[in-house]
Fold this protein.
Amino acid sequence: MSRVLICNPNSGSGDHAPQVRELADEHGFTLHETEQEGDTVEFAREFGPDADIVAACGGDGTINEVVTGLYEADCLDTTTLAVIPAGTGNNFASQLGIPNIETAFDLVDAGEVRHIDLALANGRPFVNSCVAGLTAEASAETTPELKSKYGILAYVFTTFRTMNDYEGMRLAIETDNAITESWSGKAVVALIGNARRFPASGGTQANVEDGLLDVTIAEERPTMELMGEAAVSRFLGSETAHLHRLKSKSLTISVLDGTTHFSLDGEMLETDHLTIETLPQVLSVFVGEGYEPVPDEA
């Protein structure tokens, strides 16, 4: 089988490249390392059509760019994605049950392949989540230097720095069942999950094979009070009146006051209108033992 690995050597702490080079050689991958912006998408677009397996090594943003290249090359039906976690947060890899680099390479030889959903936001793919609001603004302010120095804590620092000045966003959200499931108001966070969700209880993995988006909106509240309610909802499983949840195959989001940032797997998009749809089970991907096809039944 033809195996291609696209590696961002600067992801995360930036010290994974020697290990990845060695494992890529052991497992029969042709390795392409990115050097500048745009390389990841271009490599996936160029080499994806002739590869049976394309591995993406880096963080969520690198994975997003590899999938974008495969989507643009129209080769999702002939190529299987392997996720090699080497970023700061590695959220998508954790949803797939892939804890580290060594496990990721082992899965290529002996792992299970699942067919999962892909989401499109204004025609741009995302695999994990699309986030708007406080966390997206904080993500936009988190520099590579901060991530390299502090790792995942860099996002915490910039979130606290951003929250003092963040005034929220006025949104109108319509689902494919807009008569009974829609929302409008002022929010501090809107999370549209494909593989990720913000649960009332249990884990953060969404059902990524059901063709549905998991939407959570945190209504505007005094910031520290909202954070307290979010923590209660996340860890104790209690619902509050200020967290709204929707499920839909597609939805539109209108920003009623100017524009806002949307983070597509960490890749930023600024707009005043977003149309999101799902492409059910079009992405073949290796998964680990921790992956749950139906997480609510686990």
